[in-house]
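Possible regression after last week's pipeline update?

I re-ran a chain I had predicted before the update to compare outputs. Posting the input and the new output here so someone can diff against the archived version. Not blocking, just want to make sure nothing changed silently.
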Amino acid sequence: MRLRFGLLMIAAMSLSACATTSLGIDRASLPRSLQSTYDRAQLQDKRAQFELGLAYAAGELVARDCKKARQLLRLASQD
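New output (post-update):
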């Protein structure tokens, strides 16, 4: 699990940065447990973007979506 996590982080950081201000996610479609994470991610909270990206990558609490996961992990890795 840690190896997969590490590889995911390396891949996210090595991808080219993509500036965006909107996450492209409908907040109402998220379970309550992820809505506050989403709110923080919208406010440029890197940890929240990372956590939401991992949720989409793993398909935990939301349907697995590699495109959204990649977008969120890219945002989280930007300065």
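Follow-up from reviewer: compared with the archived run. The chain has a mean pLDDT of 83. Marking as no regression found.
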